[in-house]
Amino acid sequence: MRDATKAVKEDIDNITGAITTPIYQTTAYLYPEGEKYRYSREANPTVLELAKKISELENAEQGIAFSSGMGAISTTALALLRPNNNVLIHRDMFGRSYRFFTDYLRSWGVSVDASNPGNENIIEMCKSKKYDLIFVESITNPLLRVIDIQELAKIAKEQGSILVVDSTFATPINQKPLELGADIVVHSASKFLAGHNDVIAGLVAGYAKYLTIIDQMRRTLGTSLDPHAAYLTLRGIKTLKIRMDVINRNAEQLAEFLEDHPKVTKVYYPGLKSHVDYEIAKKVLKGFGGVLSFEIRGNQENALKVMRSVRLIIPAQTLGGVNSVISHPATMSHRTLTLEERKAIGLTDSLLRLSVGIEDINDLIEDLDRALNSIT
């Protein structure tokens, strides 16, 4: 089956004949008939259906659902790492992920190296020594660098490293990291997968030899997903393919519009020929995604004024929904980074991040144009 079909298809309930997955809102199951599930923190039929869904979409051996994207990341790392292990990340990633690796894991005795932005930097570091785990975002947040997963995976395998890829920005529609050589793929399912800004969830898919260990850690830590949230995510995934088709197209057109706008100094979007990783993006992505960032002519106050001046686009700290959302990374998603850390990755105070939705492209262009023209 192709992605659009996989996203829609659900198993029919054998007992009731229900054509959508029921919400099993229960803490426990009758013994011995329900021994497979026992307790909903450990296993729940609705949640397991979602885990199966991400496994199918990513062509993985196994999938697991979590209470959030950060729950998926932290549980995966804690399951696979031990004190004195070596980890490689890149600096230009979601602020909370960066803090988890550089603050918590280091305090736990794990050695964490962070490469500067760019494929050549992380590949060079990957070659320099044996890392137990390498964690990357396939498209980085918020500067949209595109990691050459295929090349990085080759080196990781040569070095005996586990490669974990956060593919939230790409989604299984635009990229399947496991097919490029990664061992594990992570998603904040709250974003494009669920797609409606109404659920918090995380997903992991990959090889069973790793996922079995991660699932045991999930049961221990309690980073389990609620069945109602699992149901909402399953429902959202049904339209993933058609949403991403529109979102990819809208984002490309908005990036082109912004690149020519006199109030914009730079646009970061992998679908633009001006993007530093454009050739890599064409190689490893089937679509360029729904997130772009751009720098406003002026300072932070100008950027914030643009964000306050939009009428259709929503100023908020999220992304991946059907509604277009704009944010100011320096004071929102990456506010936990110091000024020096932001400078190191090129995150300026005039940068805005735009998550493109499925609205009419002309309405989005008019809204952005009006907001940009509000600054002098």
Automatic annotation (TrEMBL):
GO molecular function: cysteine-S-conjugate beta-lyase activity; pyridoxal phosphate binding
GO cellular component terms listed in the entry, alphabetical order: cytoplasm
Cofactor(s) this protein cannot do without: pyridoxal 5'-phosphate
Signal peptide coordinates: none
Keyword vocabulary terms for this entry: Lyase, Pyridoxal phosphate
Database matches in Pfam families: Cys_Met_Meta_PP
Stated name of the protein: Cystathionine gamma-synthase
